[in-house]
Every structure is written in C-alpha cells, then in structure tokens.
Specification:
- This protein is α/β, with parallel strands linked by helices and about 300 residues long.
- It has a single domain, classed as Metal-dependent hydrolases (TIM Barrel, Alpha-Beta Barrel).
- The protein is built from ten helices and eight strands.
- The chain has an eight-stranded parallel sheet with strand order 1-2-3-4-5-6-7-8, sandwiched between helices.
C-alpha cells in the first residue's frame, strides 16, 4: 500500500512537471560521496562577540582533505563555525582554493544585500546557517528577515539551523512559507531526556511531507546516547533517505578527544547497513541539495 508520504510526493511531483519546468539534477560523476558538515579554522582569527568556545588548534582545509581522502569522500561541505560569526573570509578562501572539493554554508547578517549574496554564490556558498543555541528565535516575519528569505529562495539556497528540538514548531512554518529549503542540523537535536518523543522532534518529522526539509544525521555525540538507533527509522519513514545527508562534524569541536573521523564514518554503516541507502545519503541526496543549488 502506498504511504501518505509517497502519495503526497507523487502528486507534488506530477503537478511540478506539468506546470513548471524543473531544474535537472546534475549528474556530476565526481560527486561520489559527500561529507555534508565540517568546519575549517585556525588560531588567531577574529572571534565573534560573546563566543562560547575558541579552539586552541588549527583545522585547515588541507587537514580536512586528508580526512576526506582517507575515508573515501569525494566532496565536503564547509559550515562557517559559530565562533567566527559573520566573518566568512577563511571559509571563502578555502572554497576558492578548492572549488572542485567544497561547497559552503555561510553565516550572514539578516540585512545582507543581494550583491554580497551573489559574491558568496560565486565562491561556492549555497546557504546560510543559523546556530540558535543560546540565542532567541529570529522573527522571520519582521524586517529584514522576509527580504533575506526571499533572496535566499530566489538563489535556491538553504537555511541550515542548529536548534533544540522544542523550537521547531515555531521555526518551521514561516521558513517553509518563505520558499527556502530547510536543513536541520544534528538530527534536529531533540531533548536528550525525551529523545524521539520530544514534541518538537515529532513536529520536525511531520515536515518531511513538504519535500523541502532535509536532516543531517551527524554529531551523534551531541544528542545523547542511543538516539540514532531510534531516530533513523522515523527519519526514513517521514523523510525518506533521499532527504537525509551525513556529516562528520569534523573536527568534532569540544569532542575532539572522544571521537575521530574514521569512527563517525563507521557509524553510518551501522545506522544504514544497506549499501543502496548509504549511496543515497552519501551521494544522491547531497548532490541534489548542495551541488545543484548553483545549476
């Protein structure tokens, strides 16, 4: 029997193909396995005001590429670290030096202008990140947010959010209404005490039927023991593996002594023992999400 989710997707797909031309998915043969979440930085860079954390080591693009190559990953997505704020210069330098390996997720002020967004696009940026841990929810329906979200939607960008699971019921409706793609960091971060029963996580699951929300299955060590085993079946059911992407969360800031790249990569094999599912999560889903944003 066809599920409600698959029925919805079929109807949406038929409507889209009959009414509007759709972007073709780039079949870039060089995209074979994508790490969808990592950070690069070095000591001495200007820190954002009120930074809660400042690393005492370097995590350079070259270091990251060595990890990618050692673990069979062809591409990586660099996410601006929160402690560097909106100074994306080091991120942009990495994107420009290695355009065939990286895409980027920047942190910007909500009043950023269109020309500045175009410059970020030219460098390989395909979205923005909002790390809301310790911050209030943005008022997406109050200036300057509506204009920013419109500009992001016009660019086919995504809004990636790190926030506690309880906050999804407030965040999702206006973001989806704006037309942007939404990416939930680190399993959507349900309350460790509630796990998959967190009402906010349950609301995130319902958003799978929109086809405009993706979830990063990453940073398991940030979510409490045992979450992936319970969450991944629910994420598969509600989103499908084609809306799940894997990220190493390298260099595992604040957890550097507890894990490493090879270990987090092996986790995926346990979470998704089927090779076809892993191929979708590592190649097909991120290729569509990160590499066709510029097509």
């Amino acid at each position: 029997m066809i599920s409600r989710r698959m029925f919805h997707r079929t109807i949406v797909g038929l409507a889209a193909t009959s009414a509007w031309p759709r972007r073709s998915v780039a079949q870039d043969a060089s995209v074979t396995a994508v790490d969808s979440h990592a950070h690069v930085f070095k000591r001495g860079l200007p820190l954002a005001a009120h930074s809660r954390y400042a690393p005492d080591y370097d995590a350079t693009p070259e270091d990251y590429i060595r990890n990618l190559d050692a673990n069979g990953m062809s591409k990586g997505v660099l996410v601006q670290p929160s402690f560097l704020g909106t100074d994306n210069n080091y991120l942009l330098e990495a994107l420009r030096r290695f355009p065939d390996r990286f895409r980027g997720i920047a942190v910007v002020q909500p009043d950023i202008q269109q020309d500045a967004l175009r410059e970020l696009t030219a460098a390989g940026v395909v979205g923005i990140r909002l790390n809301l841990i310790g911050a209030q929810n943005p008022q997406f329906d109050v200036d300057p947010w509506p204009m920013l979200l419109k500009r992001l939607a016009d660019l086919n960008w995504q809004v990636e959010i790190q926030a506690e699971g309880r906050r999804w019921p407030e965040l999702l409706p206006l973001l989806l209404k704006s037309g942007v793609k939404v990416v939930a960091d680190h399993f959507g971060k349900p309350d460790p005490k509630l796990g998959v029963d967190d009402p906010g996580f349950q609301q995130l699951l319902k958003a799978g039927s929109t086809d405009r929300v993706w979830v990063k299955i990453s940073g398991s060590y940030r979510n409490g023991a045992g979450l992936p085993a319970l969450a991944i079946p629910l994420l598969r059911e509600n989103f499908g593996v084609d809306h799940l992407v894997w990220g190493s969360d390298w260099p595992h800031t604040q957890f550097e002594t507890k894990t490493n790249y090879a270990d987090v990569r092996r986790e995926l094999d346990m979470w998704l023992p089927n090779a076809g599912d892993r191929r979708t999560v590592l190649r097909d889903a991120p290729r569509k999400l990160f590499w066709t944003a510029r097509d």
